[in-house]
């Protein structure tokens, strides 16, 4: 009788205006699909994002909407598709990821959704350049990702690709992060694998997508 394979540990970075708790809830189907293969750990951004109409009652830090950085000089706002003058709060965000990796590590992989996917790409670029805060993960999964824009960001380019296995998940009807943005980010990774689904801006884990996740992860459990 063969021994059970060890679980892969994956740190999951939430998107902009998501809470750590909310992202965990929204990826329940993915956790179920990866049961027996991976343990998902969750991290939200360090910066609170005010809600237009906050619900009554106090919230825990895990339930408060947050972001990784802001693309406006003063407003708590972010646009993935515009070139910002600065990425306000980015250094604090990088520090938060470094602390989480030190606390929960070692982790096998990183998963990011939307702005969280862009954050994962930045972390990997810094790791490949030798930043001691970030050990290079064995793999990444980027959902509704995009190449981060900003004058002070590490260069992400197809001419100098990140050399680690990557799975890029994109929605054909995603209006917040159009598929071309996710494909542009995929071009910055050597040997990128893409998974296209017919939906929009969410983490898909229905029956048609599950085999792609499992096939990608199985190469790291042998």
Describe the protein in words.
With 222 residues, the chain is an alpha/beta fold. It has one domain: Rossmann fold. It contains six helices and eight strands. Strands 2-1-5-6-7-8 form a six-stranded parallel β-sheet, sandwiched between helices. Strands 3-4 form a two-stranded antiparallel ribbon. It is globular, with a radius of gyration of 17 Å.
Write the topology of this structure.
Elements: E1 8-13, H1 20-26, H2 28-33, E2 38-43, E3 47-48, E4 66-67, H3 90-104, E5 109-113, H4 115-128, E6 139-143, E7 166-171, H5 179-186, E8 193-197, H6 210-218
Parallel strand pairs: 1-2, 1-5, 5-6, 6-7, 7-8
Antiparallel strand pairs: 3-4
Fill in the keyword field for this structure:
222 residues, Rossmann fold, 6-stranded parallel β-sheet
Short description:
By secondary structure, the chain is α/β, with parallel strands linked by helices. The protein is built from six helices and eight strands; from the N terminus they run βααβββαβαββαβα.
Tell me the radius of gyration.
Answer: 17 Å
User: Helicity, in percent?
Assistant: 25-40%
Q: CATH superfamily name?
A: Alpha/Beta hydrolase fold, catalytic domain
What letter string, H or E per element, gives the SSE order? EHHEEEHEHEEHEH
Number of helices: 6
């Amino acid at each position: 009788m063969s021994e059970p394979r060890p679980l892969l540990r994956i740190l999951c970075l939430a998107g902009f205006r998501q809470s750590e708790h909310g992202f965990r809830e929204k990826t329940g189907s993915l956790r179920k699909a990866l049961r027996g293969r991976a343990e998902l750990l969750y991290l939200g951004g360090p910066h609170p994002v005010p809600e237009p109409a906050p619900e009554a009652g106090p919230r825990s830090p895990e339930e408060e909407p947050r972001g990784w950085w802001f693309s406006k000089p003063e407003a708590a706002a972010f646009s993935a598709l515009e070139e910002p003058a600065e990425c306000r709060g980015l250094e604090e965000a990088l520090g938060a990821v470094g602390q989480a990796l030190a606390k929960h590590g070692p982790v096998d992989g990183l998963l990011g959704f939307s702005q969280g996917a862009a954050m994962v790409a930045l972390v990997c670029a810094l790791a490949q350049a030798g930043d001691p805060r970030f050990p290079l993960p064995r793999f990444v999964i980027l959902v509704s990702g995009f190449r981060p824009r900003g004058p002070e960001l590490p260069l992400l380019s197809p001419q100098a690709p990140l050399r680690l296995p990557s799975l890029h998940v994109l929605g054909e009807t995603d209006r917040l992060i159009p598929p071309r943005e996710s494909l542009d980010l995929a071009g910055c990774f050597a040997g990128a694998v893409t998974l296209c689904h017919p939906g929009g801006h969410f983490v898909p884990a229905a029956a048609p997508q599950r085999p792609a996740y499992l096939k990608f992860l199985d190469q790291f459990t042998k």
